[in-house]
Amino acid sequence: MLQDKEANAAELERTFIAIKPDGVQRGLIAEIISRFERKGFKLVGIKLVVPNKEFAQKHYDDLKERPFFNGLCDFLSSGPVVAMVWEGEGVIKYGRKLIGATDPQKSEPGTIRGDLAVVVGRNIIHGSDGPETAKDEISLWFEPSELVSYSSNAEKWIYGEN
Ligand code: IDP
Ligand code: MG
């Protein structure tokens, strides 16, 4: 795999995905990463971080009026989170499909939350819900220098060559 700053410059769709503290504590990091990886999406940024509460509040700013906001921010800042950026055609929307519905009781079997979680307050994973959110969340969690553009030999087998 060669690092290539120009790789796929025209078709870079990226999304922010986080394995929340419950997913990390339950030993689900590899399981979750493998679902994105096997699909054919490309990991371009990853780090383990413990966000503080102020950072969690920024991340969930759009939910600040909701009754569960405070507990949610306490929870997100309660331990290590795996912060990631994944790249690929349709990755924002399809990433949400891989994740499943917000409430694991309503997530289909075969989805991450459907297979691996039970209640909405411990649904193990976050994924950006649209292009604007993806852009904002990636820049909240990552410096540009922490994201790596590269081409992989698998791409021609995932996308075809013409
Ligand atoms: P999403 O994670 O599927 O995008 P959002 O509506 O953006 O769902 O909510 C963010 C997170 O807030 C959820 O993943 C879940 O952890 C938590 N949450 C959402 N609704 C509830 C609720 O009714 N009770 C407790 N926590 C909730
Ligand atoms: Mg959301």
From TrEMBL:
GO molecular function, one term: nucleoside diphosphate kinase activity
Cellular compartments annotated: Plastid, Chloroplast thylakoid lumen
Single biological process term from Gene Ontology: CTP biosynthetic process
Protein's UniProt keywords contain Magnesium: yes
Keywords on record: ATP-binding, Kinase, Magnesium, Metal-binding, Nucleotide metabolism, Nucleotide-binding, Transferase
Shown part of the complete sequence: 76 to 237 of 237
Cofactors, names only: Mg(2+)
Keyword presence, Nucleotide-binding: yes
Similarity comment: family membership: Belongs to the NDK family.
Catalytic activity entry: a ribonucleoside 5'-diphosphate + ATP = a ribonucleoside 5'-triphosphate + ADP; a 2'-deoxyribonucleoside 5'-diphosphate + ATP = a 2'-deoxyribonucleoside 5'-triphosphate + ADP
Main localisation: plastid
Active site as annotated: 126 (pros-phosphohistidine intermediate)
Entry function: Major role in the synthesis of nucleoside triphosphates other than ATP. The ATP gamma phosphate is transferred to the NDP beta phosphate via a ping-pong mechanism, using a phosphorylated active-site intermediate. Shows the highest specificity towards GDP.
Protein name listed in UniProt: Nucleoside diphosphate kinase
Assembly, per entry: Homohexamer.
E.C. numbers: 2.7.4.6
Domain Nucleoside diphosphate kinase-like: residue ranges: 12-149
